[in-house]
Amino acid sequence: MVARDIMLTSFPTVTPDTPLGEVYQAMQSCDLPALPMVDEHGGLVGIVSEDDLLRAALPVYADTFSDLGFLPRSYRFHGYGQDRLSATQAREVLSKQHLVAADPEERVAELAHLMLEHDLAVVPVVEGNRVVGVVTRRSLLAHIVAPSLRCEPRE
Amino acid sequence: MTLAGILCAAVFVAVFALIATERVHKTKAALAGAVLVILVGFVDQHTAFHGEPRGPGGVDWNTIFLLIGMMIIVNISRRTGMFQWLAIRAAKAARGSPFGILALLAVITAVVSACLDNVTTVLIVAPVAILICETLEIDPVPYLISVILASNIGGASTLVGHPPNIMIASATGFDFLDFLRVDAPIAALALAVFLLGCWLLLRRSLRVEAQARARIMEFEEARAITDQRLLRRCLLTIGLTLIGFFLHGMLGLEPATIALAGAALLLLLHPEGPQEVLAEIEWPTIFFFIGLFVMVSGLVETGVIAVLGHGMLNLAQGSIAAMALGILWLSGVACGIMDHIPYAAAMIPLIQNVSGSVPAGHQEVLWWALSLGANLGANMTIIAAATNVVVAGVAERSGYPIPFRRFLKYGVPVTLANLVLSTLYLWLRFLH
Fold this sequence. Notes:
The structure holds two protein chains of two kinds. By secondary structure, chain A is α+β, with helices and mostly antiparallel strands. Chain A has helices at 3-6, 20-30, 50-57, 82-87, 108-118, 137-144; strands at 34-38, 44-49, 122-127, 130-136. Helix content of chain A is 31%, strand content 15%. In chain A, the strands form two sheets. In chain A, strands 1-2 form a two-stranded antiparallel ribbon. A two-stranded antiparallel ribbon of chain A has the order 3-4. Helix content of chain B is 76%, strand content 0%. The radius of gyration of chain B is 22 Å and the shape is globular. The model of chain B has no long low-confidence stretch (mean pLDDT 92). The A-B interface holds A 59-62, 64-67, 69-72, 74-75, 77-79 and B 78-81, 84-85, 88, 123-124, 126-127, 130-131, 134-135, 137, 215, 218-226, 394, 397-399.
């Protein structure tokens, strides 16, 4: 079993200048936790994930606090108001781990390894410099954990 | 100077140039330089690694172990959220007053930097300062600069505050109380003068809405504490370690032994395994020190230090005052542009060398001049010390870059004022 056998081939993509508001809508419409970001030629730029959106909602220095529980209930991070966040372009929140991609012939074991190693929600599958599919954790798990329940990949 | 001396000095200068121009990471450059100095034979392995007891040269294990011990204590303590608690508590104690917050954060930063590692202190205080300023809707940059300046001033006040003091203590045998006796009063004065300056210059421009001040009072600082049990254990360890520092001279123990004892105690009390804590030790800094110590051993063994010492004695023409104040100002200016750690590493054997030619009882002032100059000079530019660079990094990532020139406007007057104060202080106390 290889990536080609379990990947989704129908999925939305985003571009570097897609606003985060639209990124979220696209994620919601296809129920994917992350989407490939592609350039004008369909080449992979990276993956924008829910993690990236969450991180963008916090100030950069948030990771230096061991606990943010001291913030008042009413607290809203300044400069990160909702309007501004939804208008932010996707390229600004992209983290570098997203340069990871798989070949269509990639072994399923390596896909699982990639997901854990790089903490990826989906692995993009690239063939001839174009993104041809995405493998989700769910489709991989279906193959590993419950092969008898497996549905055919969505087209 | 011998050919070996010239070549060894050339290696030292080349490593320095690589570091200053950021061509090569400072740790890589220092380690490569150290190995080169041994391989070429400027210093034999035994002297490079062990040196002479209380003499120049060799890796100073007191410095290495003190740094490692303190890093372990701080790495565990910072997980408890106690420093965030302290900073937020201060903001609330100031009732959201912008100048009150600036002053209290400066005092806290200075005190914590005096007892613990500066870089860790500012890494924790700087983000809280940004958060508080964002809440108050004011520019965080003056606050961040104030945190840097206070951290360097605070670090100057104790044996464990800044690495040059650790190295000086190891070279001279001065104990923790000696540093409190000589460095702490001038550091306290320097901080007071700095805050007075801020009050005179900034109090008008620091205005916030009552509504913003009220938001500060809504912070629930108690919830910043992640682990009450661990917090109590950390406070116990830090308390015992500080008591140990106060007593180390009397007990005949090196401060490094006290720090390692504190680290061992806290590792035992910490429920988690040591791997994670030990992995967080700043190994690049530790190896930077090791590399420097070996390179400086080369300078000592090839006679470079002796030649420089001779030159210094000639220049001062036997005047202790000229020598002490010369060291103070040279150190202040040099450490305003470059890292004070390699500077102090090279100056220490130099002062050990000239001490032999200085009348007994007059050597002490030379060491205090080095200590004050090297530590207070770190405030001059944004690149002068690791503390400054770390805060600049946090500020930049958070969207509030500290431009080089903007820092100079605060750093240069503060450094000059501190050096003038130090000159008067050394004069009245030792040279008069």
